[in-house]
Specification:
With 299 residues, the chain is mostly helical. The chain is 64% helix and 9% strand. The protein has a three-stranded mixed β-sheet, with helices on one face.
C-alpha cells in the first residue's frame, strides 16, 4: 500500500470523521462492557477492550494531525511533524500488547467454558457491525494518504469483521450450546488484530528509524538525477519521512564544470520538479563540479 507523503489529507475534512468515530465506538464499548459483564462473555469483553484501544488510537491519530500542523520553532525546526510517526508506532504497539491479555484469558476459558446466551452476543455484535462499518467508511477515501488514517481504517474494518464473526458465533452458541465457541472467538480476534496491525507496525518502525518510506523507490530517485543533461553523478542521497505525510531528501549533484550558473539552477529546478512526482516535497540539493578535467586553478 502506498501513501502520499506530500499531498496530505486536509485535517478539516477528517475532524468530523474522527469525532464521530470516537463517540460511536466509545458508546459501543460501554454497551459491550455492561452486557459482557452481565452475561460473563469473554468474547464481548475482549472485543470491548480492543474497541477501547481503537478509541484511544483514533484520539491519538487526531492529535497527530493537529501536531503535524504546528509551525516550526528555533528548537523544533520541523515543528512537531514527527509526532505523527511516533503516535502511529505507539498505536501499533498498544494493539499488539492487548493481544497477550486477550489470548491468555481465552486459553484459561477454554479449560473452563461457562454457559452464555448466544442470542444476546449476536444482537450486540450486529450493533457493532453498523457502528464500526459506518466509522470505517468515513476513512475509506483518505486511507492511502496517511499511515494514521490507514491505521484508523484498518482497526475499524477489523472490528467490523470481528463483529460479524461474533454474530455467527452467537448464533452457533444459541443453537448448539457449544460454549467453548466464546473463547475461540477471542483467539480469532487476536489473529485479526495481528494481521491488521503487522504491516502498520513495520511501516511505523521504518519511518521512526528514518528509513526510506514505502512509497519511495530509491533507484528511481537516483536515476531521476543522473538522467538530466549536464549531470555527471547524483550521490550522497538520504531520504526520510518528516511526518506520516511529508518526505525529505538531501543529495549531491555532480555537474559539468562548463555549465553556467543559470544552467545549474535550471538543472536543480528540473530535479526538484521530478522529485515532487516521486513523493518528495522537501529537497536540499548540493552542487559539486567535476574537477578532474578542470584546467583552471580556481576550479
Amino acid at each position: 500500500m502506498e501513501y502520499n507523503h506530500d499531498h496530505s489529507p486536509k485535517i478539516e475534512n477528517l475532524n468530523r470523521a474522527f469525532f464521530i468515530g470516537i463517540v460511536l465506538n466509545l458508546a459501543y464499548v460501554f454497551i459491550q462492557v455492561i452486557i459482557g459483564l452481565k452475561i460473563n462473555s469473554l468474547s464481548l469483553l475482549s472485543d470491548a477492550g480492543h474497541n477501547f484501544l481503537d478509541v484511544g488510537g483514533l484520539a491519538l491519530s487526531l492529535l497527530a494531525f493537529k501536531l503535524s500542523k504546528t509551525k516550526a520553532t528555533e528548537k523544533y525546526t520541523y515543528g512537531y511533524k514527527k509526532a505523527s510517526i511516533i503516535i502511529s508506532l505507539l498505536n501499533a504497539i498498544i494493539l499488539l500488547i492487548s493481544i497477550g491479555a486477550i489470548g491468555y484469558e481465552a486459553i484459561f476459558r477454554f479449560q473452563n467454558p461457562e454457559p452464555i446466551p448466544g442470542k444476546i452476543i449476536a444482537i450486540i455484535a450486529v450493533i457493532g457491525i453498523f457502528i464500526n462499518g459506518i466509522s470505517a467508511f468515513m476513512f475509506f477515501r483518505d486511507k492511502d494518504k496517511d499511515i494514521n488514517v490507514k491505521s484508523a481504517f484498518l482497526h475499524l474494518l477489523s472490528d467490523t469483521l470481528v463483529s460479524l464473526g461474533l454474530v455467527f458465533g452467537g448464533i452457533i452458541i444459541f443453537y448448539t450450546k457449544l460454549y467453548w465457541i466464546d473463547p475461540l472467538l477471542s483467539i480469532i480476534i487476536c489473529i485479526v488484530i495481528i494481521v491488521s496491525t503487522w504491516s502498520l507496525l513495520k511501516d511505523s518502525i521504518r519511518l521512526s528509524l528514518d528509513g526510506v518510506p514505502e512509497n519511495i523507490d530509491f533507484a528511481k530517485v537516483e536515476q531521476a538525477g543522473k538522467s538530466i543533461d549536464g549531470v555527471l553523478d547524483f550521490h550522497h542521497i538520504h531520504i526520510w519521512a518528516i511526518s506520516t505525510t511529508e518526505n525529505a531528501l538531501t543529495g549531491h549533484l555532480v555537474v559539468s564544470k562548463n555549465l553556467t550558473s543559470e544552467q545549474i539552477y535550471a538543472i536543480k529546478d528540473k530535479l526538484k520538479h521530478e522529485l515532487e512526482h516521486l513523493n518528495i516535497g522537501h529537497k536540499t540539493i548540493e552542487i559539486e563540479t567535476d574537477e578532474k578535467n578542470c584546467e583552471d586553478e580556481k576550479c
